[in-house]
Amino acid sequence: WTNPTLQPLPTDLPSPPPPILDPPSTSHAKPYNPSLASSTTTTSYSSFTDTHDTSPSPTPLA
């Protein structure tokens, strides 16, 4: 009962996983990669410039 039921389940499972993993991988990787990279790069640069600008400004003034 459980044996025959589990047998057809795994056979059908491996079939749908490939197509399901493909769309989310490409769709998620495309918008996620550029979005995260652009957001991270801009934020990192802005933070770095802001921190550096604020650090040297008060240091020499003091």
Please state the average pLDDT score. Answer: 51
Give the oligomeric state of the chains in this entry, treating copies of one chain as homo and distinct chains as hetero.
Answer: single chain
**Biggest β-sheet: count, sense, barrel?**
none
Order of helices and strands: HHHH
Radius of gyration: 25 Å
Question: Quick one: overall form?
Answer: rod-shaped
Helix content: over 70%
Distance between the termini: 81 Å
Uncertain parts: 10-21, 41-48
Pairing-aware structural class of the strands and helices? mainly alpha
Number of strands: 0
- Put simply, the count of helices is 4
- Report the portion of residues in β strands: under 5%
Overview of the structural elements:
The structure is a single chain. The protein has 62 residues and is mainly α. The protein has helices at 2-6, 8-12, 17-54, 58-61. The chain contains 4 helices and no strands.
